[in-house]
Design a protein that fits this description.
The chain is α/β, with parallel strands linked by helices. About 50% of the residues lie in helices and about 15% in strands. The chain has helices spanning about 15-35, 55-65, 80-90, 110-120, 135-150, 170-175, 185-190, 215-230, 230-260, 270-300, 310-315; strands at about 5-10, 40-45, 70-75, 95-100, 125-130, 160-170, 195-200, 310. The protein has an eight-stranded mixed sheet, sandwiched between helices. Helix 1 (about 15-35) links the parallel strand 1 (about 5-10) and strand 2.
């Protein structure tokens, strides 16, 4: 039997955490009782610099039950860094790791399907939403469009998959070889390789608290995914530059012809439109290039992706 760790990144989840803890401990108890995972399996909460009582709750769970453990980051580092911190900590204690969010919108019963796929030899199993009925029309449209955009940019990604997945210790150790600071795990994990499969499930509504991913953060993650894993935006700018250059040469020839033909007409509208269009295009190009330069700047500093302040697993060591 393999030891399972369920890694849960948390940020200001004091309202939701008691509900999540009850559900996960019941699930883990059942898996242990059925002999599907080892008795030393655990739920690991990762506190991403919460400002509420999230860490106090994690400590209380840990003291009351051996199946709970936790990691506290020194400050808020964002969901992806908190998740990576949990994965890297759990790999030293577990054979397989399931990552999921604290809101319980991901169906915990899909873990049974993960374990079935693991028994078939899979190193990575992706939890994939079977439908998006719980989403608003706007979110459904933007999410589907985003996945298609990533595919068009050449990013290898599993459609309708977020961060609900099972990874073997071997797969997590391979992921640890990726040194980049700008993280987009749902795009990085497929790059690890190894045998993988999917398990579909229906996503539920959040039971308590508020979503920690408002539109602003979702857009930031979307930009991170594209610019961290693809250079196509820069190549598109190059292609567009070539096209505009060719068009400008053709326009130059055209204006020279009508000039010598004596048909020159004052083109105030054409001039204004051209200036604004080319100016906007140049600013857009500079912005895209600047985004990549900014990432190069961050990568060159090689700052730590996270710093662990407290690891409850260490407290248990003799």
């Amino acid at each position: 039997m393999e030891t399972l760790y369920i890694v849960i990144p948390c940020y200001n989840e004091e309202e939701m955490l008691p509900i999540t803890a009850r559900a996960l401990i019941a699930k883990l108890d059942t898996l242990i009782a059925d002999g599907r995972v080892a008795p030393d399996s655990k739920v690991m909460f990762v506190d991403d610099g919460s400002k509420d009582k999230t860490w106090n709750l994690i400590e209380r769970f840990h003291r009351s039950c051996d199946l709970f453990t936790g990691v506290k980051l020194s400050r808020n580092r964002g969901h992806q860094n908190a998740l990576l911190a949990g994965l890297m900590t759990a790999k030293d204690h577990a054979d397989i790791i399931v990552s999921m969010d604290a809101d319980l919108q991901d169906d915990i019963n899909a873990i049974d399907g993960f374990l079935d796929k693991r028994a078939e030899g899979c190193e990575i199993v992706y939890g994939v939403r079977s439908a998006r009925e719980t989403d608003t029309g706007f979110k459904r449209f933007t999410a589907e469009g985003y996945y298609k955009l990533l595919e068009a940019m050449g990013v290898e990604i599993t459609y309708n998959h977020a961060d609900y997945r099972l990874m073997s210790k071997r797969a997590v150790e391979a992921l640890a070889e990726f040194d980049e600071v700008n993280l987009f795990l749902r795009g990085m994990v497929p790059m690890v390789g190894f045998k993988s499969d999917i398990v579909t499930y229906e996503r539920a509504a959040r039971q308590a608290g508020e979503s920690k991913y408002p539109l602003k953060k979702m857009l930031a993650l979307a930009v991170e995914g594209i610019t961290s894993l693809s250079v196509k935006p820069i190549r598109l700018i190059t292609t567009l530059g070539i096209v505009i250059f060719i068009v400008s040469v053709l326009m130059l020839i055209y204006f020279l012809v009508i000039h010598f033909a004596g048909k020159t007409v004052a083109g105030w509208t054409t001039t204004v439109v051209s200036v604004w269009a080319l100016g906007g295009l140049q600013l857009l190009a500079i912005g895209v290039i600047g985004e990549y330069i900014g990432k190069i700047y961050l990568e060159s500093k090689k700052r730590p992706k996270y710093i662990i302040e407290t690891d409850l697993e260490d407290e248990q060591q003799p």
